[in-house]
Amino acid sequence: MKENKNMHGLMAEFAGEVELLAATKSAYDAGYRKMDAYAPFPVEALAEALGRKGTAVPLIVLVGGICGGLGGYFLQWYAMAVSYPLNIGGRPLNSWPLYIPITFELTILSAAFAAIIGMLALNRLPQPYHPVFNVPGFDRASTDKFFLCIETSDPKFDLPSARRFLESLEPETISEVTP
Amino acid sequence: MPKQRAMDVPDDKQDVSLLDYPTRLLPLKADLESVTETIGSIVLKPRERQPKAWFLAAGVAFTLLMIFFMAIGWLLWRGTGIWGINVPIAWGFAIVNFVWWVGIGHAGTFISAVLLLFRQKWRTSINRFTETMTLCAISCAGLFPLLHLGRPWVFYWMAPYPDTMGLWPQFRSPLVWDMFAVGTYFIVSLIFWYSGLIPDLATLRDRAQTRGKKLVYGFLALGWRNSAVHWQRHQAAYLLLAGIATPLVLSVHSVVGLDFAAAMVPGWHETIIPPYFVAGAIYSGFAMMLNIILPIRKLYRLDGLITERHLNNIGNVMLVLGNMVAYSYIMEEFMAWYSGDIFEQSSMAYRAFGSYGWIFWALIVINILVPQALWSRRVRTHPVALFFVALCANLGMWVDHFLIIVVSLTRDFTPSTWKMYYPTIWDWAMLFGSLGLFFTLMVLFIRFLPVIAMAETRELVSERNERK
Description:
heterodimer, A: alpha+beta, four-stranded antiparallel beta sheet, rod-shaped, B: mainly alpha, 15 helices, 0% strand, globular
């Protein structure tokens, strides 16, 4: 199909999150995999209905936190015990209880950086342009409208049958998403 | 069981629970469009339709900010000698202001993170507001230790970096912990605030009428397109940020408290100081939030979203925290007596009956006695009364820090070093000037960013519709 090459996908608009969730489930059952749903707030189980199991964000945050903690302790140990050791009244150079507050703060700091950078990177943001913004009325996706988009890159995608399928879900409108 | 929920009642009468608490979180007829419009229009409506009071507030705040700049300029020129500090009172207003501002910042993270983890839905209408307050307050707080350095232009000496002198900061010192704690707190609060703001910036982008606004909000929204897959990661990141910010909020003022508790000065050297500082911090933060949110609620007619139930809950939290502070006062006196330490005992006696005694008794009235009015639900849901109580608590927490920091220093171990402390006009200029910085940042926020988290409010609407 030649025209598919110039298309991002086929988008259906729904009135509410219940309809969108039901439509997404039927689309997944019908065998579509390359698709995305758009809603003005996080809808529970919607990402799961799209076939997404979980996200890598928690793992990234864990790794970030561990690196921050180890790095923070290493920084203090190196500075106080190796690079510039000061013997004050014979107290131990590696006085670990006093290194805990900064170790803790740096754990939190790098976990927070990992959370936001990880989340944005996995979402491929910032992304100034995306074809879905061409759909008329898509600006309501951030207020009160709900959208399901079946993308042309889906191996099962075929314009007439996809349109027929989406019509069977009784959406409010169907539009072609041009790049 | 109070089966009747606010949303099911057809008439507009305020709903209350079995224990006579207001229960409503949203206007009866709220839908996705109406809540978005209510919040979004504050930012997006044209300048002619902006309330006059905003311009008035901005003018006052900006004037105070100019005073702040003047005071900072004179300080950089002449040095810290323009303040009323001198040995033995080396820490004066600047440190009092620092501790006070850091404390005010604490309510933001408490509401955003701790109440999110406890799934307190009422946080939705106020979390964005208090998070912003955190950022503005920490900006004010951070300036004071910097300006107190004497040579603020070499502030970077406090940071660990491989410098040519081969030196490192003393990592065993609470003052260095403080820099890490407050710095981390600011950055993590900023990350938390911005990640919550991204979907709302996208909403503003989509609703903006002019090309300029579309461009600016679009740029800041990073191309957010409300994809379900994005939401899933966003929610995971947001929840985790809340999880890590929760221990952080308890640690920051504890570390600030250790600046004092680790020193030998009578009146500072107490183990209760870190937890007592945390309770006092969240207390003053809630008070400052009320002092700002009540006029905003009136001015922009947000009483549908910031309902009596919100005010009631805030009042309850303040009552608990205020009594924790009262408990700390009692324990301070008790431990001074029980320890048998004469320096500690004379320090406490001096605080209550010495030259600054009248300040101590004023503190007891405004910080402890007046907030007891919050036991009454009528006070908790009455905006004017609540505003007054919050103002007292705010002032009270500042006076509290003054008594601990300054008055303790005026009486050291040796009577030959005893001295009175008198602030100069530049001390007052720094205090009121920092209020100017805080309020300037706040009025700009109110004008240009959504004061209530729109996406979360929409989620609340959807949950309510499900229950119907």
